[in-house]
Amino acid sequence: MADARHVQRLYDRHAATYDTRAASRRLDTMRAALFGGATGDVLELGVGTGATFEHYPGALRSLSALDISAQMLARAQARVSGLPFPVHLRQHDYQTLPFAAASFDTVTSSLGLCGIPDPAGLFAEVRRVLRPGRHLLALEHVRPPRGWLGLVADGIDPLFERVVGCHANRRTARLLQQAGFTVEVLDSRVGGILIALRATPG
What is the CATH number of the domain that holds 18? Predict the structure, then answer.
């Protein structure tokens, strides 16, 4: 999201086929296990087409969901009907969060943190909007932990960012720790490239 307009155009263009291309039983399994732990008032960053909605507990108080792409949000809107909790969709470049402090019990993201150009800034915002003792739940692809694969990810990162709109070599868990969060990796797959984590402000 260093160039928010580029990312917006990219996801607007692919919204119609995104679900088909991104469909994955592995991702759905990880989302279900992770987002099943969301409680209370929830903020989702990078909601996309709303593929996460079915994985939330029915007892949520509310779900506020942000995305930069209007076309993705239009598809998410079609999934809102029938959900047992209120959903508020908003088009927003979520490098900043348009909410008061201590507004949410859970912040979630599914493959939405890897394109933010200033992770420390976003994580400070996440800390600000979370209520005391509450959590960030995130499913992310990260820099491969194996040496040579990590070097490959470093090499392709500029092209990856231009074509996909995010980074191939983001060290999300480490960046959260540097921002003062305690991080628990709850699941790790594809050789450690795909992780589910819970992060709590220290």
Answer: 3.40.50.150
